[in-house]
Amino acid sequence: MINYRKILELYFDNVSQRTISSSIGHSRNTVSEVIRRARSRGVQSLSDTMTNAWLEALLFPEKQAVEKGYYPVDWEKVHKELQKKNVTLTLLHHEYAAEAREGGKIPYAYRTFTEKYGNYAKKYKTTMPIHRKPGEILEVDWAGSTLQLTDRSTGEAIPVYLFIATLPYSQFSYVEAFLDMKSANWLIAHIHALDYFGGVPETIVPDNLKTGVTKPLRGDPVLNEAYRELADYYRTIIVPSRVRKPKDKASVEGTVGYISRQIIAPLRNYQCFHIEDLNERIFDKLEEINSADFQKRPGSRKKVFEEEEKSYLQPLPQTRYKLTEWKTAKVQLNYHIQVERMYYSVPYEYVREYVDIRLTTDLIEFYFKDVRIASHKRLSGEIGQYSTNSDHMPDHHRLYLDHNPENNRQWAESIGPHMDKFVSYILDMNTEKKALNILSTLRNLATKHSNRELASATQTLLEISQHPTVSVLKGILDRHKKRMQKQSSNQLHSNDRTDDYGFVRGAQYFGRDK
Length: 514
Fold this sequence. Notes:
Blueprint: H1 4-12, H2 17-24, H3 28-40, H4 52-59, H5 61-67, H6 75-82, H7 89-102, H8 110-124, E1 137-150, E2 157-167, E3 172-178, H9 183-197, E4 203-205, E5 213-215, E6 222-223, H10 225-234, E7 237-238, H11 250-264, H12 275-291, H13 301-309, E8 325-330, E9 336-339, E10 342-345, E11 354-359, E12 363-368, E13 371-377, E14 386-387, H14 395-402, H15 405-415, H16 417-429, H17 432-446, H18 451-464, H19 470-496
Parallel strand pairs: 1-4, 4-7, 10-14
Antiparallel strand pairs: 1-2, 2-3, 5-6, 8-11, 9-10, 11-12, 12-13
Helix pairs in contact: 1-2, 1-3, 2-3, 4-5, 15-16, 16-17, 16-18, 18-19
């Protein structure tokens, strides 16, 4: 008989396979196969219970079947097949028996087949029990099965999706139905669940669904911005489960199946027309589930939650979280962004850039690289409305926007009463468009002169003309400017005249006075 235990003891002591073969007296192939199978079965150390017979049953289960004349079973394959959806031991035994008879072998009976698989799973596929702390984790997910509403007008069946949240310590659960699984309902479901529990756990464990996780990276998944914001508000942490790792949230996975049997199945034929009506029925069933006594331990989910777990939850904020939604959009050439067929302005420097949009019920905010660049009150009512902040405009756009009769009158008043009278005359004697063109010329002219010069020139204009124009005003200003320049020049020449000529030789020096 092969001494499996001795081979593995020497191997775990780092003895080479060649030396083990020489000392035990078994071939190197035998030693190598024993070690290979021990590795594949996850045997890393030996305990007192691991006798030679135990190790033989573990490493070479087919030997026992062959010795007794039965067709051997690949239990590893059976275990993997059972992980697939809708695969049962009955189906696998049927396939195994058919394969055995085709080869002229004797198959195990179904009872023996299940017993041997149970021993295999118990010995080699055990899972470590994880003892959760009260208030530590909340596991959340959408149920795979659905209920339905009936459209009152068409009779069409409308699918309804169930959100499930479970506290693993007490198994206390919350269930609510929604018409879709979009981000808004995902967040609303969390808010309602936390209100139902009356507190906040340290960690929330969702699946890697798109409504919660933007990028399900292996090491550090990127959360949806609205989901991350909700977690920050409630001072909890979101830790998504690993992709295709249902054991990361085993409690809610188990609850999904239990809920399917206790809620979805009884209500599968219930006809209702409103989601509120269906949720009332679901809440009644949920109360029965949470209040029902455990079968294998005293108490119920609700009793364990209220007596042992609720006090460990963090308190809820004083006000309920205001639901937000995040989107991304490109700034148009008119420095506006279209959101739900309404238009909001951002600074013109961000034209053609992609910005993040944060929407609440009454406010909309725009972020560029995590910096807020604009905010507006959210528009409602007729579509196509614009919300424009003049500070977001380029200078020439802002000047055009400000060029209106009211602003021109205010400017004229700041110059003086004569300019105010002149501007009023222009507006009264012309159509608005023509008047604004004339005033545009006047404003450009005003940039070259001081307010005092403009006030004096306008007074002169109104005194000499019954039909004043900008061109006449320009002539007055030009003549005034020339007059001022001439006076300045004359003043300069008068200051240059003097009788002190310095060291200049006179006529006497050259003898002309003789």
